[in-house]
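Milestone 3.1: sequence recovery, worked example.
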């Protein structure tokens, strides 16, 4: 049985040389974090980036796991237009499930690969600064979002080593931010990843999800391999990029507007997708660039 071992060294070496010592932000959706073979395929690929001299940063969500934990605890789940209304009880679940359990499992798995990593408990809780989201008024309906934050600033200091020349320790950030008074809030993981990529001059933002990329139709043979910002906006406006994919494309466009050179939307479920997307010419998902031909 043939197994995908990723790109050959000759092809990959050109990209490895170009990306050496550069920051790459990788966002992992909660649908990839249930344990088992999916995360076991992703973490070794992050380790490859690290060993090839790149400086990866991981941002992760955990929406599916929070839903399951709330259901088990009998906590009501309320969403508006796909976004979670976060009550104090839900926030406690998020801190336990996302900031503690999922975050620690990723950090521990990286360390088992021999990759230095730091998580929420080691200072990553200080990175994402937010303001509380204002209530949304739609006609006669007012939605109080509760403990939901919008990113206003990134404190990069905890990400960087205090010692010049010290090896890079991979930061692992959950979708948790903090208000000015240090109150923790729920923040969208795609928003955290795009803001990090902009603020830290990352050369790439990679959004790993449960689908192969942006699909032109549900029955398409594969994802659209390359899009300009103009074409990506057209997919949003036409409704082709809808639901969760619409939110990802909007964050991708925000990152490109903010100076990130490349945004990739790829599957995290198939073998070697991260390596193949970054270290080969053809890639395997959807690449969005500022202008066609860039």
């Amino acid at each position: 049985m043939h197994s995908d071992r990723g790109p050959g060294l000759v092809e990959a070496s050109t990209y490895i040389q170009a990306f050496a010592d550069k920051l790459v932000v990788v966002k992992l959706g909660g649908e990839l974090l249930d344990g088992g073979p999916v995360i076991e395929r992703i973490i070794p690929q992050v380790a490859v980036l690290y060993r090839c001299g790149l400086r990866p940063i991981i941002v992760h969500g955990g929406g599916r796991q929070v839903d399951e934990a709330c259901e088990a605890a009998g906590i009501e789940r309320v969403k508006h237009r796909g976004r979670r209304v976060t009550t104090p009880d839900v926030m406690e679940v998020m801190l336990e499930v996302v900031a503690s359990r999922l975050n620690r499992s990723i950090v521990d798995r990286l360390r088992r690969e021999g990759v230095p990593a730091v998580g929420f408990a080691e200072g990553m809780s200080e990175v994402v600064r937010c303001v509380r989201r204002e209530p949304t008024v739609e006609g006669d309906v007012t939605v109080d979002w509760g403990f939901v934050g919008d990113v206003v600033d990134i404190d990069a200091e905890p990400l960087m080593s205090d010692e010049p020349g010290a090896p890079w320790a991979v930061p692992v950030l959950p979708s948790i931010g903090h208000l000015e008074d240090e109150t923790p809030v729920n923040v969208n993981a795609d928003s955290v990843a795009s803001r990090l990529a902009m603020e830290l001059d990352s050369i790439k933002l990679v959004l790993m999800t449960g689908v192969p990329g942006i699909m032109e139709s549900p029955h398409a043979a594969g994802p659209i391999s390359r899009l300009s910002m103009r074409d990506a906006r057209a997919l949003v406006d036409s409704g082709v990029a809808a639901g969760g994919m619409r939110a990802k494309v909007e964050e991708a466009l925000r990152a490109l507007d903010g100076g990130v050179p490349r945004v990739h939307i790829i599957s995290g479920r198939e073998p070697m997708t991260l390596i193949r997307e970054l270290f080969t010419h053809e890639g395997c998902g959807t690449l969005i660039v500022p202008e066609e031909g860039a």
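The helical segments are 9-19, 37-51, 63-73, 88-112, 189-199, 229-238, 243-257, 273-279. The CA atoms of residues 214 and 223 lie 5 Å apart.
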